[in-house]
Every structure is written in C-alpha cells, then in structure tokens.
Amino acid sequence: MGSRFRGRPPKVLGIREQAMFIRLRLPSFKAKLDGGKLTAVGSLQPSPLCETYTVCVQYRIGQPPAVEVVSPELRRRGDEPIPHMYLEKRLCLYVPWERDWTPNKELAKTIIPWSSLWLYYYELWHATGEWLGGGHQPGENETIYTEAADERAARQAVSHSPPGWGRDPGGFLRRVPC
Prior knowledge:
Elements: H1 15-25, E1 30-34, E2 37-44, E3 53-60, E4 66-71, E5 85-86, E6 90-91, H2 111-128, H3 147-159, E7 165-167, E8 173-175
Antiparallel strand pairs: 1-2, 2-3, 3-4, 5-6, 7-8
C-alpha cells in the first residue's frame, strides 16, 4: 500500500509563520499573536467601486480559520439572510471537507484573498439578489465553528498525521521517535 506523501509530508505552517507571511504580503494588516492564537485585522476593498471593509481573521493550529467583517456591518437584503455565512457571523469561504484550505497553506494567499472575493460577491448579491460566487451554502444545522467541531478538527488533524509523525506544541509535523 503506497503512502499519500512522497518524501516528507506537507509542513503545517505554525501561527508565527502565518503571522510573518501576513505581515510580509499584506502590510496593511496588523497580525498579533496571543497564547497560540493569531488575530489579523486589516482592510479589504474588493474593487474600486466597492466599499472598504475591515475584517478580522482568527486562527489556531488544529482549527479552521474564522473571518468576520468588523465594519461596516453586513446587511441583509430585505428579509433574506446573508448567504454563505455561518450563523450570519463568519464568512463561509471554502468547503472544509473538500480541503481547499489546509494548514500547510498561507492565510495571506488563500483565506484573506478569498475574503475579498466573498465581499465582492456579497455586494453583487445586494445589487442583483443572486449569489454569483458559487460554493456550498451552509445549512442551519451545520456547526463548523462550534467548540466541539474545533476539538474534533484538532483530533482529526493529529490522527491524519502520517505514520511515524506527530505534531509538536507549535503545530508542526515532526518525526516521532520509536
């Protein structure tokens, strides 16, 4: 039976590395580390005709990144709930089980640009009444961002380490001594 990794497994980027990449690639964003949690706040303007939004990205190793729009407040279109959000609070940027985003990918090259694209489609939705961004609309009962789901994701991340490998306290994959 063959391994799904050739050579070394993909390296999980630690929060310090994620913060460094955000600072390097998105200088308008302020990235802060606090007890194993990365918080990055910055402005996104999806196009010159769009509003400028302040977003907050939060990330811990073993949990999916969470993006919230801080300002301006997102508005419903009439009585319609805002599409592609979890509990009308966090942006739905990718389908977790499709593994579009994994911990070895930079937030600065994926989650943050995807947030800008989401905001572009949000403004189009307000203008047209149709969500043109595709994707999977989270159902009412989807609990991607509950603490229990976060704990399951953390256990799953550890359980999906290749044989002979484990995660150190910083979230990095390391070879485990026999």
